[in-house]
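Saturday, quiet lab. Running sequence design on the structure tokens for the scaffold JK sent over.
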């Protein structure tokens, strides 16, 4: 759900309250509306991760010891996993619930299973 992955959306749009996006998978498309606070939390975490990755790149360019670099890579992995958990939690509590209320739960579950298959590789 990084802002660069949302077609036509920019971080400033998301932070200014333009919080709706649609699934682009297959022919199924329905709106997802998330709270500004939730999107801000995710975008802020991703921005910190982005800075951390730049730091790791600098470490490699400076020929810092491999164990030190690997420790930082592990920290980024952990941070990305935490972002993924936030996104999954929001999807389950918001998007899946909304789809269930709209009577479209099966499609939503299939999309989630497909995404999890790719995520858990």
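Result came back. Writing it out in full:
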């Amino acid at each position: 759900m990084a802002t660069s992955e949302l077609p036509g959306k920019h971080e400033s749009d998301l932070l200014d309250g333009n919080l709706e996006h649609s699934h682009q998978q297959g022919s199924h498309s329905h709106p997802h509306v998330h709270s500004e606070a939730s999107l801000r939390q995710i975008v802020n975490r991703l921005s910190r991760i982005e800075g951390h990755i730049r730091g790791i790149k600098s470490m490699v360019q400076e020929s810092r010891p491999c164990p030190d670099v690997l420790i930082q890579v592990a920290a980024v992995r952990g941070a990305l996993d935490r972002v993924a958990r936030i996104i999954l939690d929001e999807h389950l509590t918001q998007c899946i619930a909304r789809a269930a209320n709209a009577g479209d739960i099966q499609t939503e579950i299939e999309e989630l299973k497909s995404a999890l298959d790719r995520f858990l590789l």
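Notes for JK: The chain has a mean pLDDT of 79. The first helix runs from residue 11 to 15. Ask whether to fix the surface positions before the next round.
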